[in-house]
Amino acid sequence: QVQLVESGGGSVQAGGSLRLSCSAPGDPYSSNCMGWFRQVPGKEREGVAVIHSDGSTSYADSVKGRFTISQDNAKNTLYLQMTSLKPEDTAMYYCAASLPRSWCYVSEMYMKYWGQGTQVTVSS
């Protein structure tokens, strides 16, 4: 079982920035694809960004140009740098990892392992 632990959430005013981190303690896990997803109570979870093991990235249209996904393989850590935050970015943010030979798209159907989430709140 792969454990994913998110951190870095918090409250920020509109226009501000936050950086989320997702660590995978324990034995390194070679996922083909890792990503960030978010969910607002009462709504379905939506994809935010994914990064393939080759370094290529994909983003939801709603965050393009504002969010950047990256990973530090040496530290076994995934990041999401969020800038120009908007109130509609308020959500619980989840880190996820796929199986080793999975496709890599901004969709939860390709993810196998999930973290517990970190809350991001953006006030206007």
Short description:
The chain is 0% helix and 46% strand. It is mainly beta. The radius of gyration is 13 Å and the shape is globular.
How would you describe this protein?
With about 120 residues, the chain is an all-beta fold. Helix content is about 0%, strand content about 45%. It contains no helices and eleven strands. Strands 2, 4, 5, 6, 9, 10 and 11 form a seven-stranded mixed β-sheet that branches. A four-stranded antiparallel β-sheet has the order 1-3-8-7, with no helix packed on it. A hairpin with a 6-residue loop joins strand 4 and strand 5. The mean pLDDT is about 95.
Question: How would the global form be characterised?
Answer: globular
From the alpha carbons, calculate the radius of gyration and give it in angstroms.
13 Å
**SSE run:** EEEEEEEEEEE
Count of discrete alpha- or pi-helical segments spanning 4 or more residues: 0
Structural class: mainly beta
Please estimate the helix content: under 10%
Strand content: over 45%
Helices and strands in order:
Elements: E1 5-7, E2 10-13, E3 18-23, E4 33-39, E5 46-52, E6 57-59, E7 67-72, E8 77-82, E9 91-97, E10 113-114, E11 118-123
Parallel strand pairs: 2-11
Antiparallel strand pairs: 1-3, 3-8, 4-5, 4-9, 5-6, 7-8, 9-10, 9-11
